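Memo to structure team: turn this sequence into structure tokens by end of day. - J.P.
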Amino acid sequence: MLTPRAMLRGSAATAMVVTALTGLGAGTAHAAGWPPLQPGARLYSGTGGSGAVTAVDLDDFGTCHTLAAPARSVQVASGSASVVLYSGAGCSGATPWATGSLAQFNLPWPVLSYRVVPA
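Reply from structure team:
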């Protein structure tokens, strides 16, 4: 038979799991407009993964790439690479933005260049 203390801990754990799953469901609904997440990295000219797509070569570490048009959103699914984004051409700008190896978000400002780095 469970003690009141064990039942309370079990109830708290159940509540935490339900809260986490509810949060995941809300996140999925929020990201419904995005293209499906797939291996690799992509930059989009519009927010929410819309507009023209630029495929990022995740094996080209360290090379600076300047975009023909600004990117407004990004998706990255890689276990070994991250993308550093810059507001200026030639990997310049005041504050670079790093994605991490698993990312899907709108950028805080338009970016004009990027560099692939190890995650």
